[in-house]
Amino acid sequence: MSGEDKLPVLAFPSCKDATNPPPTKLEQAIAAMRAALENRPAIDRSAPATVAQDIPDSFSPVGVPRSKPEGPRSGSGRGAIVLAQGAVAPTKHSLPIPARDNTMRRITAIHLPRFAMERWLRWAAQNTLAPPDDLPVVLAVEGTHGPVVHATNRAAELQGIHIGARVVDMRALCPDLRVEFADISGDRVALEKLMIWARRWCPWTATDGATGLVLDTSGSDHLLGGEAAMLREIETRLSTLGLSARLATAPTHGAAWAMARFGGVRRICRAQDLAAQLSPLPVRALRLDGDTVVLLQRLGLKTVGDLAAVPRVSLARRFARAPLAKNPLLRLDQMMGHLGEPVSSPDDPPRFATQSALAEPVQDPEPHLPALCDTLCADLFAAGFGARRVTLTVFRTDGEVSQISVAISQPSRDPDHIRRLFDGKLERIDPGFGFDLITLVAAVAENLPTVQTRLEGGADDGAELGRMIDRLSAKFGAGAVRRPTLRDSHIPERREGWQPAMAGEIVPPAPLRTLRPIRLLDPPEEVRVLYGVPEGPPAQFVWRRVTHRVTRFAGPERIAPEWWADRPGTRLRDYYRIEDHTGCRFWLYREGLHGDGRGGDPRWMIHGVFA
Amino acid sequence: MLGGDATLSEVFCPIATDGAAIGFVLAVLDMHKHAREKPLLWVQDRLSRRETGRPYLAGMTRPMQVIAVDVSRPIDVLWAMEEGLRCPALAGVIGEVWGDPPALDFTATKRLALRAETHGVPAFLIRRAAHPNLSAARLRWNISSLPSRADPHDQRAAGAPMWRADLFRARWQTPGDWVAHHDGEKLVLDHGVEASAHDQHRARA
User: Fold this and answer.
1) Gap between the Cα atoms of A109 and A208, Å rounded
2) Residues near A348 by beta carbon (within 8 Å), at least 6 away in sequence
3) How far apart are CA A400 and CA B127, in angstroms?
4) pLDDT per position in chain B (205 positions), as tens?
5) Do residue A511 and residue B59 have CB atoms under 8 angstroms apart?
6) pLDDT digits 0-9 by tens, A160-206
7) Cβ B56–A480 below 8 Å, yes or no?
8) Which of A465, A480, A585 has the CB atom closest to B39's CB atom?
9) Which residues contact A367 (CB under 8 A, 6 or more apart)?
């Protein structure tokens, strides 16, 4: 069913047919209405250039310029916002370019009607505080006039306690009511965790309100044996977590949302019978706020079908300026697919991913890693890509996700190399009571064309070095494997900085003309002067409880503080190269001068050791 | 002997804060083929870094590419050295270990030596505050500083450094005692007689 046959035929004569030259007031009004209707494409015509660039095409390969979509994407979240602020709802035939069919995808909505209560019950059971089943329990939140019921269990529901009522009233109704306080933010965090865990079924998931999840399961259902089997599998998995869920799969987000909440059990809706299945649902199924629902009911529009039958123009006139949550026309368009509403996942789904579903929960991912690496690298090879960051994720049976990732300095698709980077890291993964799904994902991938290695069989130097840096960085952390960089400073300890070697090639600093020590003590250590002389370094000093007698010295070399970087009052340094009686050569400096007004007597510090 | 086959050498420092061992090792590394354009892996444990500082590239005789690895335990130094020795793109691997850790036993040094010889990457184990216990290192040195040569431009100043190189155990040659210095291109070993004469000369002076 396309959008056009949903559009009501205008009762008015159109402008083209109005051949009579004197325009009546009615005709002027019609012209104004048409102009308002045309308004939306006018916005859209100017918008595509920017909107289309802003929308990331999430299935485009990472590291390659994203391809621009051909037509204007009315299926973007931004488009919806523009619409919400814009004047009138879109009409499909008024678009200059035919829009993408928004009913092509398969969206699964998961509604968890008792999420807060079930989470609390699970927590209570773990802490042996669980109430008996027949005891009414409510979770309360603070309202403006005292606590308000936020969630109920079944026993409380049977007693007539409903969500949104005040707790004191409900206590009067049911004296043995047990009241606990709800953890709203904890629920939200738990729902986000569950959203990540739901990636086991499809790569693209998002939270949907406080008690729902939405999954873009286009093309993922066949892995679980079709949509009906997939919905059964999801429901079973969630019930093992102690969560009761209502599910539906439909071509649009709005339709899936409505069917999960107001349709039957595990409803599956095809694109062709979208209108037929949705029309008996109440108008609440349109995701409108309470006031708008009451308003529609006062207008006598009880079901979605009633609303769809109303002429568009009259609805458009009433709800032109309404925001999305109050605009039944926009919601209806979203539900029917006239207006796109993609699942806005917080992060891009990976392009290269492989998974291994296990028959039984296991604790150790190691035996499965080589096969996963092989598959992932074969995928990367087929696409001409190499991975820069690889993430191993295990989906635990208790609804948690645990993952570790390794970084690679140069793009690689060598399965042995990737597998070796996980050596010693797999212990850090928290298996809980076991996991039954492992995924290996190339979270960052870059173009890696196939290159011919040298004919005589020698290894490519850069690749060898990169692999060694990867292994060392994976074992000790990227901050422990470093390369020196030259900085623009003449203070010795600031001249050389160290950067992680993963960052790439760094030009080595050139030696100075003046002699510098081969080792630098960081920080410099103070020495105790035993026998000082007015000029030059001390004749004898104690460093680390060893007395050194200076036999030869050269200097001083004065290094002034950098006034633009140092704190005021930093003293200058006079450096001496000295040799002691055992032949050891040190780099000694005096910090400050006598009477420079920056502290007391100058201190003697040892800063480096010569070869 | 020097600059020939890549193998594992152990260098002991009688005085922990002496920089002679570093200078000696870098001079030996200069004599290996293709060593100049390749990077050097330099592994330090925490105590070596605390007590004797970090490598300072401005003080080296030529521009050098260094990949520094900072680890905390001696056993990690050995692990990182083994990883580095597997990579033929390195000019050499230097590991600094403080004291006599139990992990650094005969087996560990043998692993390092075999790996260095297999892949042709010279390895140096610089040991401070350590005893020359049982080890499979093919060359074992004792390196200490000698009073340096006179500076031709400044009679009060120290000139080019000289080291006393005591090869107390070697697999393929007879041990010996030399006076070593770096002449800008390569390491030069003079005989111990001259070294002792030099010592006496210094003592008289």
Assistant:
1) 8
2) A56, A58, A62
3) 48
4) 565 678 999 999 999 999 999 999 999 988 887 777 889 999 999 999 999 999 998 888 888 889 999 999 999 999 999 999 998 889 999 999 999 999 999 999 999 999 999 999 999 999 999 999 999 999 999 999 999 988 888 888 988 899 999 999 998 888 989 999 988 788 888 876 555 555 555 555 5
5) yes
6) 999 999 999 999 989 999 999 999 999 999 999 999 999 999 988 99
7) no
8) A465
9) none
Give the residue carrying structure tokens 């007395």: A547
Chain B residue numbers with beta carbons less than 8 Å from the beta carbon of A585 are 19, 145, 148, 158, 161
Q: Count Cα neighbours of B165 within 13 Å in the Cβ-side half-sphere.
A: 28
Contact A213, A238 (CB under 8 A): no
Helices A25-46/A77-85 angle, 10° precision: 150
pLDDT tens-digit series, residues A324-363:
889 999 999 999 988 888 888 888 888 899 999 999 999 9
CA distance A273 to A249: 13
d(CA B145, CA B178): 12
Which uninterrupted H or E stretch holds A291?
A: helix A290-298
- H, E, C per residue of A372-434: HHHHHHHHHHHHCEEEEEEEEEEEECCCCEEEEEEEEEEEECCHHHHHHHCCCCHHHCCCCCC
Would the CB atoms of B64 and A468 count as touching at under 8 Å?
no
Query: At A148, phi and psi to the nearest 5?
Result: -125, 145
Q: Which residues from B are below 8 Å from A553, CB to CB? A: 156-158
Specify whether the CB–CB gap between A216 and A107 falls below 8 A: yes
Can you list the pairs that A412-416 forms with residues at least 24 positions away whose Cβ atoms lie under 8 Å? A412/A386, A412/A387, A412/A448, A412/A463, A412/A466, A412/A467, A412/A470, A413/A377, A413/A380, A413/A381, A413/A385, A413/A386, A413/A387, A413/A448, A414/A377, A414/A467, A415/A370, A415/A373, A415/A374, A415/A376, A415/A377, A416/A373
Average pLDDT rounded to a whole number, residues A94-115: 79
Q: If we measure between CA atoms, which residue out of A337, A374, A331 comes closest to residue A354?
A: A374
* Domain map (residue ranges) of chain B: 8-144
Whether the bond into A556 is cis, omega within 30 of 0: yes
Burial A383-418 (b: 16+ CB within 10 A, else e): bebbbbebbbbbbbbebbbbebbbbbbbbbbbbebb
| Among the four given CATH numbers 3.40.190.10, 3.40.50.300, 3.40.30.10, 1.10.10.10, the one describing domain B8-144 | 3.40.50.300
Q: Name the residue type at position A152.
A: T
Q: Minimal CA–CA distance to A312: which of A40, A23, A18?
A: A40
A517 contact residues in B (CB cutoff 8 A): 19, 56, 59
E-strand spans in A71-145? Answer: 107-111, 137-143
Which residues, in sequence order, are CB contacts of A35 under 8 Å at separation 6+?
none
Q: How far is A414 from chain B (nearest CA, A)?
A: 16
Place of tokens 């020097």: B2
- Minimum distance, in Å, between the CA of residue B115 and any CA atom of chain A: 15
Q: Write the pLDDT tens digit of every residue in A49-90.
A: 333 344 444 343 444 434 333 333 333 333 333 333 333 444
The radius of gyration of chain B's CA atoms, rounded to the nearest angstrom, is: 17
Question: Nearest 5°: phi and psi at A179?
Answer: -115, 125
B76-89 residue pLDDT tens: 999 999 999 998 88
Separation of alpha carbons B81 and B74, rounded Å: 11
Helix (H, G, I), strand (E, B) or coil at A250: strand
Nearest by CB to residue A553, choosing from B71, B146, B157, is B157
Tokens of B9: 């050498």
Decide: A387 and A376 in contact? Cβ < 8 Å.
Answer: yes
A185: Cβ–Cβ under 8 A, 6 or more apart, which residues? none
